Known about the structure:
Elements: H1 4-23, H2 29-38, H3 45-56, H4 65-82, E1 92-93, E2 96-97, H5 99-102, H6 105-124, H7 132-146, H8 151-160, H9 168-193, H10 198-225, H11 228-231, H12 237-240, H13 246-250, H14 252-269, H15 278-289
Antiparallel strand pairs: 1-2
Amino acid sequence: MSDLKSYLTSKRKQVDDALNEILETCPSRIAVAMKYSLMAGGKRIRPILCMAAAEAVGGKAENALPAACAIEMIHTYSLIHDDLPAMDNDELRRGKPTCHIAFDEATAILAGDALLTLAFEVLSSAGTEINAERMLRVIQLFARAAGYRGMIEGQMCDIASEGILLNAGELRDMHACKTGAIISASVEAGAVLGNGNEEQTAGLKQYADHIGLAFQVADDILNIVGDPAVMGKAAGTDNSRKKSTYPSVMGIEASKAFAEKLIGNALQALEIFDSKSDPLRAVAAYIIKRKR
């Protein structure tokens, strides 16, 4: 895809406009805190993947927009809570003070809680133009991916393994939950809401599983070699917390090669699709070339 930047900009604006509309009528302190973190300039990779997957199976991106907004709310909630003193204790996120620094710890906890619950309100009130059975399937996908068998389990493993050197298999299992589950659910939801058939949905899930892990490998590398001014968050934090990462287990060069292999596998999973899946191909390449 020759113009990924324009595609990402267009889809990001579509998501941002929808998110602003959802929260624009809420002037309370908690809504201000929610919006502060939600509209802090994220890449919107997960919602864009959701809409691109809908297009890849021949559907409309607009039909996946409620799910795209919901997944970004779930992702932002997880970042707010990750940054808390009891978790990673970070003071900078997306180039701005983290929610608990900008407001206070209690407000940050509640803002995260509110974004998570609002995500499911948005999904369940998406409108009559979206098939109810398919939306119910998406709700289940997101609940599982964000829950104790998905992201929460991965976060728990991440905390419990600080100071312990995991092997490559353990690391892969942890990140399949912590990072991969939400990315995989984003893509699968797009396929479902785009009316994809079982073969298409299975192919996109394979794609998503590979890029989800590649995303984490790239994040681990950026935490070592990335520029904090570009990333909008501190570098070197994984090492200071004695976390197991792909570079710490495999080395940086082997980690880069592993990420490239994962992207190759992801692209192979897209071979059953036509040019409508080109945005997904381009995003896969972007994941390991990004600087933030």
